[in-house]
Amino acid sequence: MRYIRYAFLACLAIVLVSVALANRGFVTLQLLPGDLSVLLGMQKTMQLPLFIVIFGGIVAGLLIGFFWEWLREHKHRAEAARRQAEVKRLERELRRVKGQRDAGKDEVLALLDQAS
After folding, report:
1. CA–CA separation, 83 vs 38, rounded Å?
2. Which tens digits make up the pLDDT trace of 10-32?
3. 48-76: average pLDDT
4. What is the dihedral of CA 29, 35, 41, 42, to 10 degrees?
5. Which residues form a coiled coil (predicted)?
6. Dist. CA 76–CA 70, nearest whole Å
7. Model-level pTM greater than 0.70?
8. How far apart (Å, rounded) are the C-alpha atoms in residues 106 and 113?
């Protein structure tokens, strides 16, 4: 299984390097639309290789997707934490009840009851 993972990563690296080599040309990236940049007094443009723009878009999409999924799963994490707290509370209550039940018994018999 490890070799399959390494082979997949090697193929992915070859594809990414070939995309980067094929798209080395510089492009002008404007950070704001023309009218808005004039209104704000910011004429921000950048000259970047096209592969950086492509890979940056992929990374930004992944980060936005991870964050969105983390927000979406909040209710599931909260429910799991609530259930875990309930289980701990019930385990404490069970130990307390068993301790009250075994209060008058012989210690050896109480230990045998706890083991089963």
Report:
1. 55
2. 999 999 999 999 999 999 988 77
3. 95
4. -10
5. 71-107
6. 10
7. no
8. 11
